[in-house]
Amino acid sequence: PCECGCRRLSGHRVLYHPADSRQQQDDYAINSYKRSALAYTSGNIAQELTPVSVPQKKGKPDVIVKEDEEFKRVNFEKFTNLATVFQKEGGTVTAGNASTLNDGAAACVLATADAVERLGLKPLARIVAFQDAATEPIDFPLAPAFAVPKLLEKTG
To answer: Can you give the residue ranges of the Thiolase N-terminal domain (predicted)?
Structure first.
């Protein structure tokens, strides 16, 4: 079991590094928000976005979500004044520079070669290899850092 009691605190523990200042983390996050906005507004990712229907309660009509609006909600003037979330004294993680709840959300439809042919589908990609890695529970955010080099070694 994870001794930290909270996955977010575990993430803070792993991500905090004295060499990474609050300013560096804020700058990185701001740049990320700006790149996200540019990718969306330029249309570069239009083919990668699919509207999602979100059912509502009590017979209300579904809400159709067509875009990630996260980058539109960022107030860069207030960004550097946000309070730290997990560690008040010397903390660096804030609501602005931490990953959002939807960070990395994606869907992937897999099909066999037979199904692709039978259904007349056009494959967008082919999975050539996969890899996993495990760590102690408290270090879970680091697992991908161990999996990627193994995958690269496997695939050449």
So the answer is: 20-113
Condensed to tens digits (0 to 9), the pLDDT of residues 84-110 reads 887 788 788 888 888 776 656 677 889
Q: CB within 8 A of 37, min separation 6: which ones?
A: 71, 72
pTM of the model: 0.63
Q: How confident is the model at residue 1 (pLDDT cuts 50, 70, 90)?
A: very low
Q: Three-class SS string for 73-100?
A: CCCHHHHCCCCECCCCCCCCCECCCCCC
Tell whether the torsion through CA atoms of 10, 15, 18 and 21 is positive or negative. Answer: negative
Return phi, psi of residue 67, to 5°: -155, 160
Token pair 């993680």 is at which residue? 93
